[in-house]
Structure formats: structure tokens, C-alpha cells
């Protein structure tokens, strides 16, 4: 018995790991554009959708990482400013202790 190898769909890998089936509702115009693009690229619509979702999530992850880094930097700056104010307050308290200032002078300024 001589069997011909079955032709696989364009873009479908010969071997692939576990897959999950998802149902997605597309606007008819988007579905038609996806089919045309898949045919032009000789790829399956499924492969294009997987690539698009992966690219979107990769970009979203980068943006989230950037936001986390920005927040960490802002928190570090806030801690530095807070520490600086604390030190300045301590220095002023110390100077007040060394050089007593008349309460009348303090309220006048």
C-alpha cells in the first residue's frame, strides 16, 4: 500500500505541542481581510492570529515593565527627597538648640 503524504495547510507546522481552542467573533470585514492576507502570505489564519496575539502581549509586557521601572525610580526619588527634608529638619532643630532664637523673632519672620 503506497500512501501519499497528506498535504498540510499552509503555515501549519508538521509537529506542534499542545494547543487550546478559543472561539473568537470577528467582524466580517476583519475576517475577509485576515483570509486574504493569510492567502497572500501562504500562511494559515490561525498562525497569523497566534503571531498577532504574541506580538501584542510582548509589547504590552514591555510597556508594563517600563511603567514598573518608572514607578521604582519615582519612589526612589521620593525617598531621597523625604530623607533630605528629614535631614534638613534635624539640622534646623539642632541649630535652634545651639543658637536659641527668641520666640518673638521666630514669629516675626
UniProtKB/TrEMBL annotation:
InterPro entries: Ribbon_hlx_hlx. GO terms for biological process: regulation of DNA-templated transcription. This is Uncharacterized protein.
Amino acid at each position: 500500500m503506497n500512501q501519499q503524504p497528506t498535504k498540510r495547510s499552509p503555515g501549519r507546522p508538521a509537529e506542534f505541542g499542545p494547543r487550546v481552542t478559543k472561539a473568537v467573533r470577528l467582524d466580517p470585514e476583519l475576517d475577509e481581510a485576515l483570509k486574504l492576507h493569510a492567502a497572500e502570505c501562504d500562511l494559515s489564519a490561525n498562525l497569523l492570529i497566534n503571531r498577532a496575539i504574541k506580538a501584542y502581549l510582548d509589547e504590552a509586557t514591555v510597556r508594563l515593565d517600563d511603567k514598573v521601572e518608572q514607578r521604582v525610580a519615582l519612589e526612589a526619588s521620593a525617598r531621597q527627597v523625604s530623607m533630605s527634608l528629614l535631614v534638613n529638619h534635624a539640622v534646623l532643630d539642632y541649630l535652634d538648640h545651639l543658637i536659641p532664637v527668641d520666640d518673638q523673632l521666630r514669629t516675626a519672620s
